[in-house]
Amino acid sequence: MHAKAFQDYYPDYFALCYGCGRLNEHGLQIKSYWDGDESVCIFEPRPYHIAVPGYVYGGLLASLIDCHGTGSAAAAAYRMENSAMESAPPKRFLTASLHVDYLKPTPLGIPLEVRGKVKEIRGRKIVISETIAADGMVTVRGEVVAVEVPEKMVAALIKNSG
Amino acid sequence: MHAKAFQDYYPDYFALCYGCGRLNEHGLQIKSYWDGDESVCIFEPRPYHIAVPGYVYGGLLASLIDCHGTGSAAAAAYRMENSAMESAPPKRFLTASLHVDYLKPTPLGIPLEVRGKVKEIRGRKIVISETIAADGMVTVRGEVVAVEVPEKMVAALIKNSG
Fold first, then answer.
1. C or N terminus of chain B, fewer CB within 10 Å?
2. Average per-residue pLDDT in chain B?
């Protein structure tokens, strides 16, 4: 049905992240896709991702903003170069800063839609603006400043994973 | 050894939070205490709270900033009134906004020290500035704007928990 998610292209040594790593069996394993110029991720929090009864925990919402943001930054970097997401060396982004505004309580028990768009590109930094909506109502706005992982760090990860 | 943690005073219907609820068996169950004018929380991330091998997941760090911030805001509100943390009605705070700067990667496998201090009090809003340090080195700075839970919401939670 869907194309591969952004996170499905990450090499194994980048696929351990608690938020988005497909190899982290304890983690959230979020999946992000393009939808035109926006990136989208659908995630249904688990019953224990609770703040107070009926509402989603803010730290989980921050985690969705975080990982959907870095994934979107990587996908945008490939798109900007017109290169395929499987091209080597892998482009991956880490979070330099994260901002989240909780506009209203987010109801628990339904799938949430996280949407991102590129706000700004400054050298190796990409700023992604995001929203989280529950049943069509935006409850959270967020922004991630994502920085491309330095090649030295990529090389060290490859070496250590070998 | 220690006095009771801030979170140990929360009534049961406020003790389900994934980040700080003592009754959430899947959650982080963080514990915060006063240390002079600062609040402190020691938390050791689990091995699966990973970003890339050797480093802590940013969403987990954001969750620590979030819950230690709202807990510190509640404790500060009691302290300001010179009232005990078990006084009724319970003072609890929700996060209006969260900002996290990741200054450097945070090493995984050691206890982290989260420290907070009151930056500003504006009516029902309390701003808490925070740091996270690993082995004495500050790796994260954060800020939480915490808002006191409206009495109507407290009343609804009490009613639903009955």
1. N
2. 94
Catalytic residue among B8, B12, B35, B66: B66
Tell me, what amino acid is at B137?
M
User: Cβ-count burial of B54 within 10 angstroms (0-12 exposed, 13-18 middle, 19+ buried)?
Assistant: middle
Spell out the residues 6+ positions from residue B90 whose beta carbon is closer than 8 angstroms to its own: B9, B10, B11, B14, B154
Task: Give percent of chain A with pLDDT exceeding 90.
Answer: 80
Of A14, A53, A105, the CB nearest to B52: A14
Q: What amino acid is encoded at B103 in this protein?
A: L
Q: Please judge whether B59 and A50 are an interchain contact, meaning their C-beta atoms are less than 8 angstroms apart.
A: no
Q: What is the ipTM of this complex?
A: 0.95
Per residue in A106-127, pLDDT (tens digit) is 999 999 999 999 999 998 999 9
Contact B50 A17 (CB under 8 A): yes
A82: left (phi over 0), alpha (psi -120 to 50) or beta: left
pTM of the complete model: 0.96
How far apart are alpha carbons A71 and A146 in whole angstroms?
9
**B97 interaction partners in chain A (CB closer than 8 Å):** 99-102
